[in-house]
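#struct-help
A.M.: can someone run this one for me? Single chain, 897 residues.
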Amino acid sequence: MFALQAVIALLIVAAAALALVLQGRYDSERNARNRSLAVAEAFAHAPGLVEALRSDDPTAVLQPRAEAARVGSGVDFIAVLAPNGARYTDSDPSLIGQRAHGDIARAAAGESFTEIYHGAPTDAVRAVVPVRDENGTVVGMVSSGIEVETVGNAVEGRLPLLLGAAAGGLALAVGGAGLVSHRLRRQTHGLGPAEMTRLKEHHEAVLHSVKEGVVIVGGDGLLLLANDEARRLLKLPPDAERRHVRELGLEPRTAALLLSGRPATDEVHLAGDRLLAVNVRPTGDRAGGCVMTLRDTTELSALTGRAEVARGRLRLLYEAGTRIGTTLDVVRTAEELSEVAVPRFADFVTVELLDPVMRGEEPSGVHTEMRRTALSGVRPETPLQPVGDLIRFVVPTTPMASALDEGRAVLQADLASAQGWRAQDPEGAAQALAYGLHSLLTVPLLARGVVLGMANFWRGRDTPEPFGEEDLSFAEELAARAALAIDNARRFTREHSMAVALQRSLLPRVLPEQNAMRVAYRYLPAKAGVGGDWFDVIPLPGARVALVVGDVVGHGLHAAATMGRLRTAVANFSTLDLPPEELLTHLDELIDRIGEENEPGREDDGSDADGDGGAEGTAGATCLYAIYDPTTGVCTMASAGHPGPALVRPDGSVEFPALPPGLPLGLGLGDRPFASARLKLEPDSTLVLFTDGLLEDRHRDFDTGLGLLRRTLARPDRTPEQICADVLAALLFPVPSDDIALLVASARRIPQDRIAEWEVPSDPSAVAPVRNAAAARLAEWGLEDVGFTAELVLSELITNAIRYGRPPVRVRLVYDRVLICEVSDGSSTSPHLRHATDTDEGGRGLFLVAQFAQRWGTRYARRGKTIWAELPVSQDGPGAGPAVPLLDPDALEDLAW
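D.P.: on it. Structure tokens below:
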């Protein structure tokens, strides 16, 4: 036996060692494939690779990079190939220019793959990845790999360890088998008489301890053996053994079965006042005896009934754990509690909650007044008060008041004798009794030791059996699980309400007045938690307007607060009149700083008062920023990982303009990672900006939502308000899982007869003709009352541009809500406002402009700058604004230069 165990151990250890060797080689090969593919993918997508392949000498550019990448990644070679397989780079410079062998046509066709290559210059595990340009065309390939010899060396390096472990395992197995065999031989000493006697004693001990009667009868009808349970069930005399069956006082039917020796299965026999389930089988010996087993079905039936009830309660508790708390809604959680207990535990269930709990607030106030929140029953009609009623427990002897005072379940088995309950509402109690309600079990809903409400379980004529003491613990367990779910829903409701309030307070409540676009918006917070979606409409100088839509990653108060910071930052950056791509760059740097401030573990004073290890980190945000100029109809926009807008043409056609791709904010992509696109918008064209929560959800992907949005927008002649309503009606989810921000803007154009432009020669004498032409145009517009002020402002701005700027100098007047005076020149020097002293002869030009303009400022273009000033016009003009104050010539004497 020992030799057999040793051989088996040897075979097992040998098989395990072989399996480890094979597994090690497989793992090494698979690791080589993965490393080769990862290196090839990374190098194929490296910035600048496509430009290098298009250069005059790709080898000179790429060979140092490939060699550095090979050394850094640990692979044996990295080769950059032309689409025809010619090598631009290789770890062996002598191979540069030669065509690579093997099946590289797959990579040339656009497929990435790994293979075990056999051939020159060496066998290797290699990966080949295509390199695509911006149009998706394969312009090259990257091959990287590890030589087969390197893979084999890795496996051979593990062989000493594997063989050593196998030898140790074999020695341990053989030694263990020897010890076990020696121990068994010493313990058993063979199967002698003493051991057989011991086994017989054990068998008899077991035989007499089982809760099933066993009777053995010989072929001659004598009782050979009866265990203790059989003696009890059959009431056998002490000297029953070796006596004939007919002398034992058994029921005639039972005695006849024993003497017949016929097989029987679960036959029911009477033994006094007990019913016995009897099984009979022949012993199989020559004497023709039989063995009978007996079970007391009377007790078994009772035990089975109790066990079935217990199993039913366990199943109900398990079902309650899966059905209660499926949502974070307080009312729905209470309804789930009432639904799960009907009809298997009660005929009717009512749930009452404190009013503050339903609002998501901390439980407070008296516990004698609760709001009925849920009601379920086996019948639609009920004598109980409906949902929404205020339930008062003014009589202290009612079961409800007692349960609240004691903090545990209270049973009222007979409602007819419950005087306190009947005194609480005599009329309602009489209706309930007449309806058939006869038993009540009431349980307080407690969470963290605080009362949230209570649950009442009622039984009526559909369940004649009243509640019993064994039902109390079950009801308390069911109520405890429901109370925890209700408290979680309450706390979520409170946080959700706070986040919604914060979110709405940080979003624009009234859109600013501007004439460039007609704008409508919608914002809907998510049901499962407020996110960081936001939008904004920002008037810009020159009658322009900026449209902003963004989304902060995450949900809750932190996301809402971060959204507020970003919206404020966008509003501040917009005052600098930056192009969209530059504004997004500044916003990217800001969110990087926010992320550094909110890094986990970063503390202000060296301690964490809340014990949470620091604030929640910011993962990033997306943003779409667009600037529309109504004088030209040009809309410039840039995106930082945000879905682009939908453009609805006046004829109802819908398109989704392609924007330069930009990754989300906060990823640290460099100084200027964003680019902008320019669109020419026809009058009455509509831009629809949105967040991804409008289109996608668990049950709908982004592309499906985009198609649905296209069909919804493809109807002309609708106002922005109508478009907002139609889009939400078509795309809104029943329970949104993410915030939705929707901004619809219809483009307007300033008529060309409201715009005047002149080019000014670089000669101070040219100021007067331009000033006169401007005065004439103001007279045509009916703005004589602001003519003198406009002439003064234009004179100062044009003179400064000629004196301190560079040609060309251009002047533009735009008549919108205000009169906009713009003077552009080719210099990027910023003007500086200063206050001249009484003795200075100059320095008051910009001061005059600032005094008589409503607003003024500077915006920069790629070449040069524009100084603008807005003058308020009278209420009779096309825009609304206060009348411009008339200038006092005497006052101007003090400001003259």
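A.M.: thanks! The two ends are 121 Å apart (CA to CA).
D.P.: also worth noting: The longest strand covers residues 138-147.
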